[in-house]
């Protein structure tokens, strides 16, 4: 049997929305949070992601050779005897 959500959950959300609509301070803080989110998203997307997602191989053959070399190369294990 599926339980219906209690009305207290809806009233909590409804009261929060009404508080934001009535409070000037809450509106200002919400705008600041949205601006910060947009700035960080723009910074990450524009400056950091292209560096890490940029392919480092000129061709498919070069990629295959590089991956094969990395897989075949033995691990450098350190033993303290």
Distance between the termini: 64 Å
Number of helices, where a helix is a run of at least 4 consecutive DSSP H or I residues: 3
Low-confidence stretches: none
Cα gyration radius (Å): 27 Å
Content-based structural category = mainly alpha
Overall form = elongated
- How do the helices and strands follow one another from N- to C-terminus? HHH
Helix content: over 70%
User: Which strand-content bin applies to the residues?
Assistant: under 5%
Number of strands: 0
The average pLDDT is: 77
Describe this structure in words.
- The structure is a single chain.
- Helices cover 73% and strands 0% of the residues.
- The chain is mostly helical and 81 residues long.
- Helix 1 (7-22) packs across helix 2.
- The model has no long low-confidence stretch (mean pLDDT 77).
Topology:
Elements: H1 7-22, H2 24-53, H3 60-72
Helix pairs in contact: 1-2
List keywords for this structure.
81 residues; mainly alpha
Could you provide a short overview of the structure?
The chain has three helices and no strands. It is mainly alpha-helical.
